Amino acid sequence: MKRVAGFALFWIAVGVLISIWLPNMFVEVLCIILCLLAAYELFFCCRDDK
After folding, report:
1. What pLDDT, on the 0 to 100 scale, is given for residue 36?
2. Alpha-carbon gap, residue 39 to 8, rounded angstroms
3. Among 5, 11, 18, 37, which is 20 to 30 Å from 43 by CA?
4. What stretches pass through the bilayer (predicted)?
């Protein structure tokens, strides 16, 4: 569990660094929405439980 938390915190930090260089708030919100949709697809829709 510690490894998963560390992995998540690392990528949160990477996201914060990337958001520093993005030109405006619209692009940041668009990136957040795209990442949330990708995470949903990967976490909930790619299961082999079918």
Report:
1. 80
2. 12
3. 18
4. 25-46
> pTM value?
0.59
- Give the total residue count for the chain: 50
Per the CB < 8 A criterion, the answer to whether 18 and 9 are in contact is no
Residue-wise pLDDT for 30-41, tens only, equals: 878 887 888 777
Four-CA torsion 17, 22, 27, 29, nearest 10 degrees:
30
* Half-sphere CA count of 28, side-chain side, radius 13 A: 11
